[in-house]
């Protein structure tokens, strides 16, 4: 077993002696336990999760679905970007959800603007689907569809072979389809990427880099 247990551990004794877990000698990626916990992964607003070290190829088609819960109006949700211009990006900006795609000919954006600035940032779960099909892109937020016209109809493939960054990204990594540098604060769950018949559910505890992210532990209320 090479990954940590997604659980809470308490009242541990060693050789009959109670261990003091309030003041450990060292600590790494361990969060406090919450009295009320929901399924999901907690992002504390300081970092990111990095998935698929060997590189994710977006190419012509991809469908991204996830659920998020936050009280912040800004935050990176997901980005995959080549060192050139080809990229995709999902982010919250001023309470709107933006889905950006660049197939090499220029960035296009589908934007979902809720009726109230804070209606997506109300601390409740919201369901997001972002679809790229060649040069067409669309967003579905809580069942509401938004799509956008793309003038670059000949450019259909986002040629990436790069990690998927969720909730933020390192300062030295280029993200051509994200405008925000703010790390996401809140909870994410059920991140699924689908290409054709292949569906992949991502487990954050298996990320190759986690900073300020606590898999399988979403506090029932903001702390």
UniProtKB/TrEMBL annotation:
InterPro entries: ConA-like_dom_sf (IPR013320), Laminin_G (IPR001791), Neurexin-related_CASP (IPR050372). Pfam families: Laminin_G_1. CDD domains: LamG. Residues 38-218 form the Laminin G domain. It comes from the Eukaryota. This is LAMA1 protein. The lineage of its organism: Eukaryota, Metazoa, Chordata, Craniata, Vertebrata.
